[in-house]
Backbone:
């Protein structure tokens, strides 16, 4: 079997490990059924293996480490959707996939099927180090300094069943990027890591700590500017050791690392980490160049060969076909190789459910990945899919193939590219339904020409204060609130997760569900009417301040 | 009280078990009980005379004991016995052992079946990160197995 492009290739020992993990989980299910494990004891154990109990059924969250999978794995996910779920899967903002209608007794079988293709649900939930996320354009983007995937894989391995950090005060999310353009929301993670090349060829890492969304949104603070590769794991161990020992355990709403960092201050946190490092046997924790090279050698590199006229062919096709041209403009990104391009497949059809894909679409994506992108697929933190290495002269064929299964929506980064949490349709904690409002907004702005005219604008929707839909980080954010049993939405504007991360500010009183879409349309009209040439929504908002937008949103007709 | 040994060190029974606060007063104490909020560094002056440190887990989800055990082994170079007691699960056996814990007080309910603890210790052939135990690489990369 050839090595898949894009992610670490398992060997027999890794596969034995997965089987052992499944056997362990099966034993835990058995002990729950025979009563030796109480429900309180079983719950954290099943969560650590990705199994949630939602409103109506179990949900299984499958890990897609650093968001990358191969076509064989994607096909398997499609089969699982068909056989064990209601024929669809939901891609999440943490680059994973969720199956929403799972039966407890099917889970060991599903886990075994996943293991056939080297996949699992390990640490996709629970108070442990969660599946590590990375830049969706890793190893492909022209603007990248360091390919973060090798180190993302190192972090995946290091954090897997970590003996010390599996019973943390709260969940712990790490993201890593190697581009100056932050595409991982590094400063909204418990630990955000930005890699750049060091003087000796090995990368160095800038480390942010204590970011997060949820009910207390906080932008992560820089802990270290330049951690050397050999000390990466030691530094992470030290950060987590301080958190594990001192993070609050009396109140789950105050248990994230961000609360500890805020309580003692980032300087004190840094001193505490340095005190750990001073006592640690650094040799023991050293990440050696040999270990890094060994892991790197298990990643296949795509052979990027394109005809000399690939660029010219694409340019001509764009001139000939304005619809295709519009899609290229919104849904592609510059590749490091001039004959190739990065294509993003939108899972946000107008009026559809953000991030959902049917088993037929999943299977088709796998075929298209084989045909056009070395069999490699990436899931983005905005719930879309990326084919990372498409030859420019073949891009139009890919687009035609996507059109056949309703996946050629030209709206990446535009107002239709909405991020929404599961909300009250699935989630027991919800105040409001996130999905229907996302669908209504998608339908309202369905016209892709209008979307292109509006330009860069991100809408994020959360059904409650837990902020799974990242509403704080949306250019326009919607937060579901409950007012005497009615669904209302609170609007925020000015959030961003990209460079210059910011938390959105509340525009005013929450609006009833049926007035929210109109209010957002007025916000957008306000921007369109008042923008100066070349300005994005955020630019105009920054220049004019909130007041005109507040007036527009609350103007009653 | 039923003890289960996670490793090679034989579990010792001590008649006198004191708290961290009592340790200074009791010259005869060879065993101390740490609550999960206690800082193991405070044991430094007494390490030479201590044979046993008991870590109490108030609930199995409270993972502070794992860090306490590692601090005792890695920073304080404690070479006596470390024991875990309280609400612990067999599912944690290998984690405890890899952090330097030698023995556990078996829970009195269904989680106290020694066969479950035994099985869990042997559940995983390899690990993906270093621990306090003697280990050798089974690369590629970070993977290790214990040297017995
Ligand atoms: C329906 C089941 C779900 C439940 C019960 C749930 C519960 C929660 C809770 C309680 C928090 C707040 C945690 C804290 O701040 O300490 C949270 C945050 C979060 N969840 Fe969910 N969630 C669910 C689904 C999802 C889904 C489907 C996604 C991805 C699309 C997701 C992604 C996130 C993210 C990214 C955060 C916030 C950011 C952060 O960690 O700081 N969650 N969730
Ligand atoms: S934000 Fe609230 S409603 Fe949405 S998934 Fe998270 S917990 Fe559920």
Residues:
């Amino acid at each position: 079997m050839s090595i898949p492009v894009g992610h670490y290739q398992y060997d027999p020992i890794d596969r034995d490990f997965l089987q052992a993990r499944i056997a362990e989980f099966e034993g835990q299910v058995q002990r729950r059924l025979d009563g030796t494990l109480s429900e309180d004891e079983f719950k954290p154990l099943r969560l650590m293996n990705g199994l949630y109990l939602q409103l109506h059924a179990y949900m299984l969250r499958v890990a897609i480490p650093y968001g990358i999978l191969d076509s064989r794995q994607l096909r398997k996910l499609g089969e699982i959707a068909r056989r064990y779920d209601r024929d669809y899967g939901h891609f999440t903002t943490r680059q994973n996939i969720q199956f929403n209608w799972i039966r407890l007794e099917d889970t060991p079988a599903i886990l075994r099927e996943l293991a056939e293709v080297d996949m699992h649900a390990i640490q996709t939930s629970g108070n442990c180090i969660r599946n590590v996320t990375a830049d969706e354009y890793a190893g492909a983007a022209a603007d990248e300094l360091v390919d973060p995937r090798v180190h993302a894989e190192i972090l995946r391995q290091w954090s897997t069943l970590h003996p010390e950090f599996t019973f943390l005060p709260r969940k712990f999310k790490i993201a890593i990027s190697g581009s100056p353009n932050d595409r991982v929301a590094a400063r909204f993670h418990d630990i955000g890591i930005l890699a750049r090349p060091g003087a000796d060829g090995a990368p160095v890492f800038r480390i942010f700590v204590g970011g997060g969304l949820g009910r207390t949104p906080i932008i992560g603070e820089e802990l270290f500017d330049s951690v050397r590769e050999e000390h990466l794991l030691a530094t992470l161990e030290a950060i987590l050791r301080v958190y594990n020992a001192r993070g609050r355990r009396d109140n789950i709403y105050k248990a994230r690392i961000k609360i500890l960092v805020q309580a003692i201050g980032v300087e004190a946190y840094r001193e505490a980490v340095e005190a750990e490092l001073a006592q640690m046997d650094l040799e023991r924790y050293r990440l050696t160049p040999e270990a890094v090279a060994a892991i790197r050698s298990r990643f296949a590199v795509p052979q990027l060969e394109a005809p000399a006229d690939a660029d010219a062919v694409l340019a001509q096709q764009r001139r000939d076909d304005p619809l295709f041209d519009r899609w290229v403009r919104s849904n592609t990104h510059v590749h490091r190789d001039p004959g190739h391009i990065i294509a993003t497949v939108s899972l946000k059809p107008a009026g559809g459910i953000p991030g959902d894909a049917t088993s037929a679409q999943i299977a088709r994506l796998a075929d298209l990945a084989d045909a056009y992108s070395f069999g490699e697929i990436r899931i983005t933190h905005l719930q879309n899919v990326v084919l990372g290495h498409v030859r420019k002269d073949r891009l139009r064929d890919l687009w035609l193939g996507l059109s056949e299964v309703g996946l050629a929506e030209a709206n990446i980064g535009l107002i239709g590219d909405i991020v929404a949490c599961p909300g009250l349709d699935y989630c027991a904690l919800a105040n409001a339904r996130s999905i229907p409002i996302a669908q209504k907004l998608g339908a309202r702005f369905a016209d892709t020409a209008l979307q292109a005219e509006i330009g860069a604008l991100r809408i994020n929707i959360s059904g409650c204060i837990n902020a799974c839909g990242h509403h704080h980080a949306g250019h326009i954010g919607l937060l579901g609130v409950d007012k005497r049993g009615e669904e209302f939405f609170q609007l925020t504007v000015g959030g961003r997760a990209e460079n210059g991360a910011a938390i959105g500010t509340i525009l005013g009183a929450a609006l009833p569900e049926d007035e929210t879409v109109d209010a957002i349309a007025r916000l957008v009209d306000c921007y369109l009417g008042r923008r100066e040439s070349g300005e994005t929504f955020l630019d105009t908002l920054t220049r004019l301040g909130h007041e005109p937008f507040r007036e527009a949103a609350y103007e009653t007709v | 009280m039923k003890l289960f040994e996670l490793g090679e060190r034989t579990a010792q029974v001590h008649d006198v078990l004191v708290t961290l606060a009592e340790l200074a007063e009791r010259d005869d104490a060879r065993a101390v009980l740490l609550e999960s909020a206690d800082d193991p560094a405070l044991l430094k002056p007494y390490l030479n005379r201590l044979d046993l440190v008991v870590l109490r887990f108030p609930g199995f989800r409270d993972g502070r004991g794992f860090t306490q055990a590692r601090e005792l082994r890695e920073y304080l170079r404690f070479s006596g016995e470390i024991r875990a007691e309280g609400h612990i699960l067999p599912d944690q056996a290998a984690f405890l052992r890899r952090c330097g814990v030698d023995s556990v007080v078996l829970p009195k309910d269904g989680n106290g079946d020694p066969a479950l603890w035994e099985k869990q210790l042997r559940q995983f052939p390899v690990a993906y990160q270093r621990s306090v135990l003697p280990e050798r690489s089974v690369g590629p990369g970070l993977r290790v197995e214990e040297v017995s």
